[in-house]
Design brief:
This protein has a single domain, classed as Transcription Regulator spoIIAA, CATH 3.30.750. It contains four helices and five strands. The strands form two sheets. It has a three-stranded parallel β-sheet. It has a two-stranded antiparallel ribbon with strand order 4-5. It is an alpha/beta fold. The longest helix has 17 residues. Strand 2, helix 3 and strand 3 form a beta-alpha-beta unit.
Length: 111
């Protein structure tokens, strides 16, 4: 392995956190946060809808904001992944369609 690659790895070998969007997501804040991730050595992000997002999921505004995030990430040399799973308002985390039936259903076990 090249020692320089170890000290300064390419984006695909760096951290890639899940970036939950909550509340109101403004264009200038998206640009600032993506640039901040680049400046801190993050290799990219997985964009996800968070609890309390005030932009309708999959609306035109949503896609406009996603486009800004992707374009800014491209300018910064970051990778982008999109996590498209709706957020459960009841539990405040991404909803798994099987989760309520597998966790909350009473079960009986054979002796």
């Amino acid at each position: 392995m090249n020692p320089n690659t170890f000290v300064n790895p390419p984006a695909e070998n760096r951290l890639l956190p899940i970036w939950y969007w909550n509340g109101v997501i403004e264009e200038n804040e998206i640009v600032r946060q993506v640039q901040d991730m680049r400046d801190k050595g993050i290799g990219g992000f997985c964009l996800a809808t968070g609890a309390g997002l005030n932009i309708p999921h999959l609306s035109q505004v949503w896609f406009d904001r996603v486009r800004i995030a992707i374009e800014t990430a491209e300018e910064c040399g970051l990778h982008v992944w999109l996590h498209d799973e709706p957020v459960s308002k009841r539990f405040g985390h991404p909803a798994n369609l099987a989760w309520p039936s597998t966790i909350h259903r009473p079960t009986t076990h054979a002796p």
